[in-house]
Amino acid sequence: MTTPVALTIAGSDSSGGAGIQADLKTFAALGVYGASAITALTAQNTRGVSAIHPVPPEFVTAQLEAVFGDLAVGAVKTGMLGGRATIEAIVAAVRRWSPPHVVIDPVMIATSGERLLPADAVDALRTRLIPLATVITPNLPEAAVLLSEPVAASDAAIESQGRRLLALGCNYVLIKGGHGHGNESIDYLIAPTWTLPLAAPRLATHNTHGTGCSLSSAIAAGLAKGEDMETAVRNAKSFISDAIAAADRFAVGRGRGPVHHFHKCY
To answer: What band does 208 get if pLDDT is binned at 50, 70 and 90?
Structure first.
């Protein structure tokens, strides 16, 4: 029997709700063995990020070589990348090892507002890493930053931005609708020849820390298990919706608390 393996390349969240910690919890909850390469240490909690300590790019490379050289990685997910040199290190490793799937969550700004990717690294993300992606998962503000455009305010504008993001070289784009308005949160999965809106009820909870990390990790987990893109995205959206719905079972921190990754277990 082959054990599905997914690798997260991201920053560490000292409070456990987002980043590497959320990714590994998601992989485990979905029956996938999780490996990690840490790009940055953060001092953060449910109220915000107070400090960031980048990992040297050469040590990011060392982590990636160790994992790829031993584990049969079925999917890679990237999150907080830190800077341009780290992005270049990841590009080199992906080109060298050619993992079957690469899921890019273009993390640029924390939920609490702190900038997590320097402006000079955005171009490297856009031109160097995104062309290697199976799918990218920007929210509405991130899609706008990647295209240097205003945030899309209509279905037509969202689809139009998605198609321009596809032109950067990735295979699929999932634009997340969590920053939108209305009773439903609508994500748009965009392929070269079709667009699939995926709606879910907008849930009333303050505990949403780590939702973006967890959604992209759930997609990577599905792809590592051999699911096709539509199935992986549908299952990931269902997983994160249930994790958000169960988030209020937790009483963690005094800000935006974490979602409940193990809602099916306890």
So the answer is: confident
